[in-house]
Known about the structure:
The protein has one helix and five strands; from the N terminus they run βββαββ. By secondary structure, it is mainly beta. It has a domain at 30-92. The chain has a three-stranded antiparallel β-sheet, with no helix packed on it.
Amino acid sequence: MFVRQLGYVRMAGTPDVRPSVHIPTVYESVATEPSHWEYHVLTIDAREQALPDSSQLNTLGQEGWILVSILDESVNGRGSKVHYYFVRKANT
């Protein structure tokens, strides 16, 4: 037999266990400095140069550079250059 009371269901003969109450998470307001970033663009003319291999990209990664975007001009027929955009946190 089921008994319905105030939005929850319990079975007859079982202990009355109510769902736990949600405890909200409160975050402390801490002042932070805005981050400063450096940018690096590696431009390769695909007709004249080979695209960067994994060792070149790994070297940039070890220097802290993160690849965030690639623009290939040949996709839209505007050129043959490939632009690699990198970012890293500036040393201030």
